[in-house]
């Protein structure tokens, strides 16, 4: 007769739970004694056997090794020791720690970029474990590289700002702990542009005149007016209207000249020059009502006239039987001789 002496397995007590930080590796030993040496196996909480794969492995000593622990591996685990004299098992709970939802650095509410310039905006993760995944959206749709836009490691690059790029943008960060979003509006700024207008204005002295200056720009340009390169200071008779036009009341001849509309914003300045021509109706300067002359002498009757453009001067002699045309006696300066 052969007597086989042995003992059933005895497991060194496992902790009721162990913890591991998210995406870290963990090794959980399972030590058993017995004769003959027990075979150690690990099982999920539902009793199914744990086999070696990219996530799990069991060493020859019976240690359970878990790679890149995430929430999917959290739960109950069973270590089982077995020989021909019996079986013993213990369980523990695996807890995943260190999970932190993403926290993003704020984006500006409005990002202003001059048209044609390059600009980049970084979506900065202040916290989050595991490392959050970043996605950019434009007007609520996932942003694709192209059309002058590029995404590089969470940084949005506007290669050459254009009208198309003006939109709402948001950076979305997510991990297994949650998500966070930061939003901004991209506003494309425009260099002031003065639309074609009259290059020459003609007005009669004493009338009112409006010199128009149609300006487009973002932000709204400030408008100044100059006459002969000297800035105009608004007063009761000359002022700048809300649309940027220059209003001149009761125009006088000395106000004739070159005017410049200058539009400026933070992007730049545009100028538009125009000419104001003032017509002056003919008026006789220092008229003389009578002349005394000795018979037989030459008489010169002066007619000093101011007008713009120059006036055509005619003389007529009033007679009881009608008028006599005296054009043949008119001198080049308008005097009658």
UniProtKB/TrEMBL annotation:
Gene3D superfamilies: Immunoglobulins. Residues 9-97, 102-187, 192-277, 282-317 form the Ig-like domain. InterPro entries: Ig-like_dom (IPR007110), Ig-like_dom_sf (IPR036179), Ig-like_fold (IPR013783), Ig_I-set (IPR013098), Ig_sub (IPR003599), Ig_sub2 (IPR003598), Neural/epithelial_adhesion (IPR051170). Keywords: Disulfide bond, Immunoglobulin domain, Repeat, Signal. GO terms for cellular component: neuron projection. This is Hemicentin-2.
């Amino acid at each position: 007769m052969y007597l086989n002496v042995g003992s059933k397995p005895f497991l060194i007590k496992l902790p009721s739970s162990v913890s591991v930080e998210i995406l870290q590796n963990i090794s959980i030993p399972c030590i058993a004694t017995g004769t003959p040496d027990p075979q150690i196996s690990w099982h999920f909480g539902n009793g199914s056997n744990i086999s070696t794969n990219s996530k799990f492995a069991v060493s020859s000593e019976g240690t359970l090794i878990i790679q890149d622990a995430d929430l999917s591996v959290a739960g109950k685990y069973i270590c089982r020791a077995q020989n021909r004299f019996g079986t013993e098992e213990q369980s523990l709970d695996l807890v995943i720690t260190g999970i932190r939802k993403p926290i993003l650095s704020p984006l500006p509410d409005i990002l202003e970029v001059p048209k044609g310039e390059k600009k980049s905006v970084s979506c900065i993760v202040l916290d989050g474990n595991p490392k959050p995944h970043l996605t950019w959206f434009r007007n609520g749709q996932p942003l694709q590289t192209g059309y002058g836009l590029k995404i590089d490691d969470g940084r949005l690059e506007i290669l050459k700002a254009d009208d198309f790029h003006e939109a709402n943008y948001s950076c979305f960060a997510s991990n297994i702990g949650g998500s966070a979003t930061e939003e901004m509006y991209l506003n494309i700024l425009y260099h002031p542009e003065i639309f074609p207008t009259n290059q020459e204005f003609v007005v009669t002295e004493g009338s009112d005149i409006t010199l128009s200056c149609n300006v487009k720009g973002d932000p709204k340009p400030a408008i100044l007016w100059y006459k002969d390169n000297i800035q105009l200071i608004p007063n009761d008779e000359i002022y700048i209207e809300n649309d940027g036009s220059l209003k001149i009341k009761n125009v006088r001849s000395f106000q004739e000249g070159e005017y410049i509309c200058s539009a400026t914003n933070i992007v730049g300045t545009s100028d538009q020059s125009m000419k104001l021509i003032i017509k002056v109706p003919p008026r006789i300067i220092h008229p003389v009502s009578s002349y005394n002359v000795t018979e037989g002498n030459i008489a010169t009757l002066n007619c000093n006239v101011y007008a713009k453009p120059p006036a055509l001067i005619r003389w007529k002699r009033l007679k009881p039987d009608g008028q006599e045309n005296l054009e043949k006696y008119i001198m080049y300066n308008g005097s009658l001789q």
